[in-house]
Amino acid sequence: MKLIEQVTLYFKQGNSDKVYEVDLCEVSAGAFVVNFRFGRRDGALKDGSKTVVPVDETKARRLFNELIKEKEDKGYRRSLAEAVAAPVASSSPAAPAKPAATLDLSFRGGNLQQAQAIVARLQRPAKAKWRLSRAIWRAGEMQLLAAADLMLPLIGKDPFLNYSIAWALGRCGEERHLPALQTLMQSGPDKNFDTRSTRRAALSSSLLISQGEAREACRQEILKELPQPLSQALAAQDLTAFARGMESVLAEQPDPLLVENLYLLDEPLIRDWLLAFTAACPLRPGSFHLIRHLYKLAEQRGDAAVFGLIAHRLETTPAYYRSPSSTWNGGFHLSHPELGSRFVKNAELKKDPPPLAYGSKTRDYLRRRSWHTLERLGQLRHPDFVRFAAATLVQLKDDDGIKPYCTSKYEWTGRGQGRNVETWWDRYARFISVNFLLYGNSPRYELGDKSKSYRCRGGFVPGSSPVPAQREESFPELWDAAPGALVELLKRSRAAVVHEFAVKPLRELKPFWSQISDEDLESILAAPYPVTGRFALELALPRLEEGFRPRLIAGLLHSPLAELQAAAAQAMQRYAAESSGSVDLLLALICAPADATRSLARHFFLRQQAQPGIREELVRRVATRLAAESEEIRRQDLRRHAVELLRPSFPQLPLGLVLDFLSHPCLEVQELAAAILVEQDLKPEQIPPWLLQALLNAGTAALRDSGVRLLGRYRDAELLAREELLLALASSPHDDLRPLIGALLLRVCDHSPDAARRCCEALAALLIRGRLKAEVLEDLLQLLSGPLLPHLRQCPPELALKLLSVKVNAANLVGARLIDRLPPEGLDALALRRLLVNENALVRDEARKYFSAHSGRYLGDLLSFVPCLDTTWRDSRDFLFKIFHECPDLSAEVLIAICDCADAEVQAFGRQMLIRRFQEGDQLQYLLQLSEHPSPNVQLFTSGFVEQAAGKPAELRRLLPYFASSLARVNSARIVKKRLLPFLEKQALLSEENAGILLPLFRDHSASCAVEMKAACLQVLVKLRQRWPLLDSPVRILSPGAVHGV
Amino acid sequence: MEFDFAYRGSSSVSSDAAASSLSFAPDTRRPPTFFQGELVQVLPFREAVSALHSIVVSDLRQQEKDRSAYLAWAAGRELADLQEISAQRAGVKQQIESKRVELEKLEKNRHTRWLPLQQAKQRYFDHLRKTDMKSWYVLDPVISVHPDCVFLECFSRDESSYGCLQVNYEALRCTGAFACGTTNIDYSAELFQEFQKLRSYKNTRFDIDPGGFEMEVQNQESFREVKIDLPDSWVRGFLQVSSAMSLPMVSLDLSPVDLHNLCFHLRRRKELFGPRSLRFKLKPGAPVRILLEPWNTELVCHRSIYQGPKEEEIRIWGRRRLHILERLIPIARKFTIKLLGDGMPSFYIADLGDISFTLGLSGWTANDWSKCGNFDLMAPRANTDDLTKMLVFQKLKENWSARPDELASRCGLDRKTVLGALGAWTQAGRAVYDLKNGLYRARELSRDTLPFDKLRFGSEREAEAAALVKARQVKLAGQEVQQGRKILSGQVKDKKQSYECRLVIDADLALKDGSCQCNFYQQNRLRRGPCAHMIALRQLQQEESR
After folding, report:
1. CA distance B211 to chain A (A)
2. What pLDDT was estimated at residue B137?
């Protein structure tokens, strides 16, 4: 089949964008056909044919031409350009449009044809394919003034039409349309449509088109509906009261229209509050409707900031729940992390407020709506496009992006074969509005399936493929017409992609460059993106060539890019003299955060300081900047850097400035003041005492440090007068302060012996009291046992005694160094005993030395030192072992006391000593007293003395617990038992009295399951029964019965 | 659960050749409770207080063996073996051997060089352990001063043993002022060492220091704040055991030598496998017989005749805790044993004349999951309203102690209501049942009210299980015994879903295995203990068997 002729026709009107292709083909010689294809442009076309069977050429040509004409009559044109420019063809020539001259066809967006078409549609309200409400809406979008009057007769015909008119009148109406809006505001309820929307749209429109008194009346109406605290706060223009009122109102189920009403008031006072609310209001049931209302109002009112903010929030906030793809049984099943798993009925969703909001479908719809709004504004060439687009783009942040990723899909190519198709998705793929704006004409991105995200195309791989040099944004001509918006974007945006986009058109707009002010360029220079930085540098360098431009140098200084910083260094070098006279530039130099600029600043200030006239101003500006900085770490950093750079100029600053700074609420400003104060050449008498006191008691180390430095300026004699202050500060809870004060105290002590004594006594008293933090005690200990020790040694001996007598380790440690200064009567045994077991080796050491030196005093009272033997400190224990060992006459009490100690080693030592110092006459005492010892070892040892009780009923009775305890040891103490049983048997058989005393022992243990014990006890019991038949014994002796042998 | 105390100074026992003095530092944050007196029966007191100390430090839970050193060595050895094998192949065995010897020598040298440091470190840790003994104990003993006696109570670290030392005023002569109440006393290891130095030939003072409540004076030690963070299970265990005391129990008397024989058998042999129980075979008018498993040794206590009304056989576990009583054997006149039932708490009251010592043992030594769901001692006994409870408590606090009948007549309530209220106060830790004298005593375990709701159940699953049993959602389908193990099966209905459960209970009545169809079991098996359904089945079986 040979193509003889082909015509392509285009039709473009409103949403309609169609194509119609007609072919004339020769099937065979003399046989022709006319085929056609039609459908949406860029879409799949439908095929058709005018010839069922081939016809001859003439007929075919006729059919071909007829078809073309028919289509052209309907508005199709031979080229796309023609189709776009073609006036709307009227399908019905009987209804000509009203002469345009009678109407004001002024509009803000769109073109004349579109305006005419709308007017024509509104003039023919009969049912047609292009719905009337769409035409009205479009009139609103275009802000077509002529349409407003045409809408008025349509009011009341249809609820949705009413709503559209209410909305559109706000955009294209004038004050004279207010009565119509009033009518709309009173529209009654309708079963198919929520007329509250109409009333809200009408109210908003009224405020938009009214002026003067009418507007004020409208506002008053709204104000009346606000809760009282809010209306009062607004009347008083008190933002704090308003914010407080809002907090309490929002906490308790607020009126759903509250935020909307506040927005409608258009009150400059609360504009920032509203923006912050919009940015923070959670997108979830209970609050989402507030944002949704704001979003629609922002569209109507052309409020780009609110629109951009909400559009960005919709892009970045996930849906609250996943909307169901279909419902069954009048609802759907929901599985939600907060709401759990449950069945949601459709009827539930219609409740007010609904239990669910911001589902995935709502979110997708609103995201698409943002995109379409922007697209329509662009198509209409509306002046608002750039504002809305810039407001949307400025919200994008670098952090919003994700890591590019790749998906792969297996695609069948037919005949049982297929291939893997990889698709890349870039960082901001899911931001459809942003992608539309930035990459509407891009060769590398395209809208993905379902219009939910943008994917890469043409083999573009994010991060590795080269970025095309051409411009990629939608509606480039609109951007070209508004270069100011591009500059604003460069100043405010914190997204690299936005900068990459904005720089491209600006590079082309060379004539506009000169209109960019130094102030703007300063901000652009500071941007952290190389593409912006380089562009700005290109602009800045020629200007710097022309002369000294402090703002530009400041911008360069704040840039994080090395080449810009280098340019700044060059400029500073070139204009060194001028720079030192510019407060702005010097401030920028100080505040620049990069290492390179910091180094530059150091070199600059090293060579030349700020000119005398501006020093004070510079320091003031630094203080202001410090106070404005929000992060504490950055404030501290800036304060340190500023002090380092400006220190040489501090001495010349007036004292008044410093005092001002000291009363500043910002801590870092106070610290700056303290640093200045220290550098000033102040005589001690010039320092106000209150200032000194305030600095020493300040909350930060830097302030306290300057306080101590100022205090250090006093001469020794003057310091002496402040002895009490110094003593109080010596135990200050601030760790940084105490060592500094210690040095000053030493000066005082060196100056006056009397003061030294007083100070040492006071500090020692603190130690003795011991109720201070461990760190404070440690510092006092270091001070007293270090530099102040010579002075301490001059104190009365009673002080040493006190230090050694208390139960405070630090005091004992200091006391140990004064042990040779003790008064003649010395330490009593109790105090020395405690020192001997002190946990500090030094104290124990000194105590032992003291004991040795005064042994005569203590050897007579060794019993007092026996408890010390139980100490775990090996040194003191060994020392005491030696003392006891060498002592020739140890009394029985001492020996028994040593055995009574808890430690097994000491008990063993005691037993040894007892054997060595054994006194014949004390044996019974040993027995009776050691028998009460609970330890098995001592019990065994004691059993050696048991014969001392032989034949002594009284002693036997006293020893009964010992016997019982030894015999009752479970599965142990075999030797003691073996030793005691014969002794006890012997004693029991000795006399009836003894038998009576000891019989319970045998009786009890005769029931033991230990065979040896049981047998021995039974034997004794039998013997006792035989010997003393009258004794109350459990044993009965039975005479053996007759034994019958085999 | 955090307990805060503030002591002024420390408790101390000082002794010289002629006198000893026990001075306890009370918790100054509690209402003033003090006592000054002189100890008359010193040796029984010393032995009893030593037994109390063994409860405080007792921890008989099975300790996991630390095998890390062996495993590290084995891993190193494995490497060496592998090297050896490869070396043999490569023909360099000798070289490696010489190097290995050299390496060993170097390691030995290193050990020698590091030894002083290690020893010093060990000494330092020992010192820390000694000086900071607080961290090794759980809760300081509670001391109560009542008009008729002073008593000290404590609970062991392993949450299984309760001790109460009650000293009448015949053994502890009051010589000064005293104020009734309850307080915690500062307690340390040194104190135990010092107790050992008590002797009858020294005058011994016993003070709960009234100075502790005076304002601080200068140049003296300040108040010492002690914070102890106790596990909830510990407090729950304490309350469980003390509330078990007020339940009706089987009572029997053992002569000291019988307890000696029991301890003797336990000391002589070590069981390698279960069951590890004591079976008390009680027949009215016959000697008490105690069967020691698994050896099946029967101990006939000829001097201890059971006086109870009917024949019983009760099994108890955790028998090695009875060694705590060993020190009391020579001084005790008799031991009264109170048994609640199989695997339930048991109590041993040592009669030392004017001093009595009560040892309470929980059902098992370890309160791990295998014992889950055995009994619920914290279940409310009767529904008593708050006002009635307050009334009963106020009346009890008037005299500090009272019998239930006496309280009932004073409050004008019936005995059952009073018992219900007293049971609730016992579970809340604000009253305690005096087993020896059969009366209730007011004793506030802690300064602040204990969160009873938190302590009611050991875990959330136990609470769920109790709710299921209460709602009659549990059905016990079968019980069979296979190879000495009892296998329970049943259904538990939970939220419209029915689960099949199976439990395996061993000869020691511990839950050894089980299964359930629920999600918790599918996810965790028994690693985190049995699921609520298994516990519920066990609880039902316990209830039915009772």
Report:
1. 18
2. 52
Q: Which long-range contacts (CB under 8 A, 24 or more apart) does B385-390 make?
A: B388/B413, B388/B417, B388/B421, B389/B421, B389/B424, B389/B425
Region B502-523: mean pLDDT is 85
State how far the Cα of B187 lies from the Cα of B195, in Å rounded to an integer.
12
Neighbours of B62 (CB within 10 A): 9
Residue A421 touches chain B, beta carbons under 8 Å: no
**Ramachandran bin of A680, using left for φ above 0, alpha for ψ from -120 to 50, beta for the remaining angles:** beta
Cis-peptide, bond into residue B275, ω within 30° of zero: yes
| B197/A872 touch (CB, cutoff 8 Å), yes or no | no
CA A976 from chain centre, in angstroms, equals 73
* A807, A929, A1009: residue with CB nearest B199: A929
Cβ count within 10 A of residue A891: 14
Residue A44 in this model has a pLDDT that exceeds 80 = no
- Decide: helix, strand or coil at residue A13: strand
Q: Report how far residue A25's alpha carbon sits from residue A29's, in angstroms, rounded to the nearest whole number.
A: 11
Ramachandran sector of residue B429 (left: φ over 0; alpha: ψ -120 to 50; beta: rest): left
Enter the pTM of the model: 0.59
Counting beta carbons within 10 angstroms of the beta carbon of residue B107, is it exposed (0 to 12), middle (13 to 18) or buried (19 or more)?
A: exposed
Per-residue pLDDT tens over the stretch A648-673: 888 888 888 888 888 888 888 888 88
Secondary structure letter of residue A36 according to DSSP = E
Do residues A1022 and A1035 make contact, with C-beta atoms less than 8 angstroms apart? yes
Which of A769, A863, A897 is facing B219, going by the closest CB pair? A769
Element (H, E) at B117: helix B93-131
Q: Which chain A residues are Cβ-neighbours of B303 within 8 angstroms?
A: 1007
The residue count for chain B: 546
Model pLDDT for residues A1027-1046, shown as the tens digit of each residue: 988 888 888 888 777 666 54
Determine the residue among B257, B290, B335, B496 to mutate to test chain A binding: the one whose Cβ has the most chain A Cβ atoms within 10 Å: B257
Query: Does residue A577 register a pLDDT over 50?
Result: yes
The burial class, CB within 10 Å (0-12 / 13-18 / 19+), for A541 is middle
φ, ψ for residue A89, nearest 5 deg: -80, 135
A761 touches chain B (CB under 8 A): no
Interface contact B193-A870, CB threshold 8 A: yes
Residue B171 has a CB neighbour count (10 Å cut-off) of: 23
- Tokens (6 digits) for A566: 């280098």
Q: Does residue B485 or residue A314 have the better pLDDT?
A: A314
Please name the residues in contact with A669: beta carbons below 8 A apart, sequence gap of 6 or more: A623, A626, A627, A661
Tell whether A841 lies on the interface with B, counting CB pairs under 8 A: no
Amino acid at B408: A
Chain A nearest CA to B472, separation (Å): 27
Q: Which residue matches tokens 């129990």? A: B249
Q: What is the arithmetic mean of pLDDT over A198-221?
A: 88
The Cα B72–Cα B312 span in angstroms is: 53
Spatial separation of the C-alpha atoms in residues B329 and A967, rounded to whole Å: 10
Q: What is the CA radius of gyration of chain B?
A: 27
HSE-up of residue A493 (Cα within 13 Å, Cβ side)? 28
A900 CB near a chain B CB, below 8 Å?
A: yes
**Contact between residue A240 and residue A221 where contact means Cβ atoms under 8 Å apart:** no
Torsion sign, CA atoms A982, A988, A989, A990: positive
Q: Which pLDDT belongs to residue B381?
A: 66
Query: Is the pLDDT at A101 greater than 60, yes or no?
Result: no
As a whole number of angstroms, the distance between CA A25 and CA A6 comes to: 9
- For residue B239, the one-letter residue type is L
For A255, the token pair is: 């009126």
The two tokens of residue A916 are 């060595």
Predicted confidence at residue A99, as pLDDT, reads: 41
Judging contacts by C-beta atoms under 8 Å, the chain B residues touching residue A897 are: 16-17
Instruction: List pLDDT tens digits, range B123-133.
Output: 888 777 666 65
